[in-house]
Design a protein that fits this description.
Number of helices: 11
Strand order of the largest sheet: 1-7-6-5-4-3-2
Mean pLDDT: 94
Radius of gyration: 18 Å
CATH superfamily: Aldolase class I
Shape: globular
CATH architecture: Alpha-Beta Barrel
Helix content: 40-55%
Largest sheet: 7 strands, parallel
Length: 294
């Protein structure tokens, strides 16, 4: 099985006014990110607005990303559903399309017990032959993965990674201590350099779409044990996270990409695009990030 590590940008999902995927824009973005040195691509993460897409649109996003990557970096496709059967069908389709891994996300309406949460993720992992990344984000998910569930799932031969967006770095240490075989990816909600210091293998995050070179440089400094330089760069890059945390993340990333020349379009309704003052804040954060040493 492939070994995932490094910087995996959460790609946006660019659409035109009729809801058609802007395949050319997505392919160009993927190509430019690979040229900037990212280690993988993740379509249909949170920044990809998966919750607002139908299955046909989701498949088009994944297919376009896989074709654009052309085997140069692994593609880990997001799978999200409220029904296990739907999630399994998505996972099987994306694996057939050529995805190198699955990012497993649980959507829920009614509360679920631990056993039901575990069965959902186990069903996805049982359905494919590629590595599965567990994704937990209690800020947005009605039903989170408990440490006990994570520990049991980590024994599955294909569940080899977790991307945790809890903002609780102590939780990451608990996961690492209890699940020795489970590799941890940071989210932008954590401080990636700190996660790398305690044993993380990289990060999956939307902001890496707009600061890929700086993100890759930060990862290289961490991997090289150059912690003083890494933290200096992390301090500079954290300003962009602070701005993005103030507004809708997909709207921020799309606005930033538009400023960089990618016609990705607006966030999907009922989300709203950023206003003029908000865009100016994003532009200032981008300008500051561009000055970061790379």
């Amino acid at each position: 099985m492939p070994d995932f590590h490094g910087v995996f940008p959460y790609l946006v999902s660019p659409f035109d006014a009729e809801g058609r995927v802007k395949t050319g824009v997505l392919a160009r973005l993927a190509d430019d990110l690979i040229a900037a040195g990212v280690h993988g691509l993740t379509p249909l993460g949170s920044t990809g607005e998966f919750a607002y897409l139908n299955n046909e649109q989701r498949a088009a996003i994944v297919r376009t990303t896989i074709e654009a990557a052309a085997g140069r970096v692994p593609v880990v496709a997001g799978v999200a559903a409220t029904a296990t059967a739907d999630a399994v069908a998505q996972a099987r389709l994306y694996a057939r399309l050529g995805a190198d891994g699955i990012l497993a996300i649980l959507e829920s309406y009614f509360p679920l017990a631990d056993a039901q949460v575990e069965a959902y993720f186990r069903g996805i992992a049982d359905a494919v032959e590629v590595p599965v990344v567990l994704y937990t984000n209690p800020q947005f998910q009605r039903t989170d993965l408990s440490l006990d569930v994570i520990a049991r799932l980590s024994e599955h031969p294909r569940i080899r990674y977790i991307k945790d967006a809890s903002t609780n770095t102590g939780r990451l240490l608990s996961i690492m201590n209890r699940c020795a075989g489970l590799k941890v990816f940071s989210a932008s909600a954590h401080i990636p350099a700190a996660v790398m210091l305690i044993g993380g293998v990289g990060w999956m995050a939307g902001p890496a779409c707009v600061v890929p070179r700086q993100s890759v440089r930060l990862y290289e400094l961490c991997r090289g044990g150059q912690w003083q330089q890494a933290m200096e760069l992390q301090h500079q890059l954290w300003r962009i996270n602070e701005v993005f945390a103030r507004f809708n993340l997909a709207a921020c990333i799309k606005a930033a990409l538009e400023l960089q020349g990618y016609e990705v379009g607006d966030p999907i309704a009922p989300q709203r695009p950023l206003g003029g003052d908000e865009r100016r804040l994003v532009a200032a954060a981008l300008a500051a990030a561009e000055k970061a040493a790379v």
